[in-house]
Structures are given as C-alpha cells and as structure tokens.
Amino acid sequence: MSALHRVMNASFLAASILTATVVIATPTPVEAQAVAAGRWDVTSTVTELDVPGVPGFLVRMMRGKSKAEHKRLVAGQGIEALIAPDPKAQCRVENQRIADGRYAQSLSCPQKRGEPMKIARSGTYSATGFVGIATVAGTTPKGAMRIVLAQRAARVGN
C-alpha cells in the first residue's frame, strides 16, 4: 500500500469512526437536546496530520480534505445520534458528556495491529447541529501518529 493510501485510509478511517449512521446507546448526564428529523451531513476536515514515514508533500495534500457522512435521523433523536461512532469500527465509548450546549467524548478504537487508536472529541451543539474538533492519536509501525479533524453537522433536508 502506498504512503498516500495509508494517510488517506488513516484520516478517513478516523472520520468514519466518528461519523456513523447507527446510534449506540450511551448514557449521558442529562437528556440531550433533540435535533430535527431528516437528512444530515456530518463533515470532517483534516486540519493537522502527523503520520511518521509519510512524505511531507502527501501530508500537505491531505490537509484541508473533507469527507461527509450522510445520516438520517428520526423524530426524538438527540445530538448523541450525530456524534455516535461507527459500529463497524468497533470503537468503545470510554467517556461521554452531553449537556448545556457542549459535548465531550473519548473513544478507544481497535486497529488490525498494535494498540487501539484514542479519539478525543469536543465542541458545541444546538438544535441545528454541532461544531467541534476530533483528535485521533495512535501508533503506526514507524511511530506515533496524530490527526486533527474539524467537524460540523448540518441538516440538509427532510
């Protein structure tokens, strides 16, 4: 696999892990704010990328790249539906707090080889979506990696 594919896979795996279409049940300290039912886009944009062994020009190419995940929410679902991790990634929610217009979430996501990736997310939310940052940290065969994603969710239709 080329270095470009490894970088793309790592950054978009991180985005996919963080923006799934299936909701998992995770307790929150208080009832999260309901969001409008309908179609939503959750967009993750690579803002920082540090992956050992990947040439600098590939890292520069990946910075600013976005991936949108499309979700459909039903009436009564809260903001937790938009920040739920992808079940296919088998991530475990270690900690989650959704209250007072702010969210914070810590995830542990297994890799095929090596230690699990750790993901820390935080941001603000309202009935119209969320804006936040996700930091993905893990280990590659060549050392520690770190990816930072800017995330935004917006309703796009019924």
Account of the protein in words:
By secondary structure, the protein is of the alpha+beta class. 17% of the residues lie in helices and 47% in strands. It has three helices and seven strands; from the N terminus they run H-E-H-E-H-E-E-E-E-E. The protein has a seven-stranded antiparallel β-sheet with strand order 2-1-7-6-5-4-3, with helices on both faces. It is globular.
Biggest sheet descriptor: 7 strands, antiparallel
Number of strands: 7
Beta-strand fraction estimate: over 45%
Radius of gyration of CA atoms, rounded to a whole number:
15 Å
Question: Roughly what is the average pLDDT, rounded to an integer?
Answer: 83
Order of helices and strands: HEHEHEEEEE
Low-confidence stretches: 1-8, 15-30
Query: So what's the overall shape?
Result: globular
Structural class: alpha+beta
Helix content bin: 10-25%
In which order are the strands of the major sheet placed?
A: 2-1-7-6-5-4-3
The count of helical stretches stands at 3
Taking the alpha carbons of the first and last residues, their distance comes to: 40 Å
